[in-house]
Amino acid sequence: MASGDSSFDVVSKVEMPEVVNAVDQAKREIETRFDFKGSISEIELDEKKGTLLLTSDNEARLTALVDVLETKLHKRGIDIRQLDLGKIEDATKGTVRQTATIKQGLDTETVKKIVKYIKDSGIKVQAAIQGDTVRVSSKKLDDLQAVMAKLKGEDYGTPLQFINYR
Question: CA-to-CA distance for 27 and 59, rounded, in angstroms?
Answer without folding.
Answer: 18
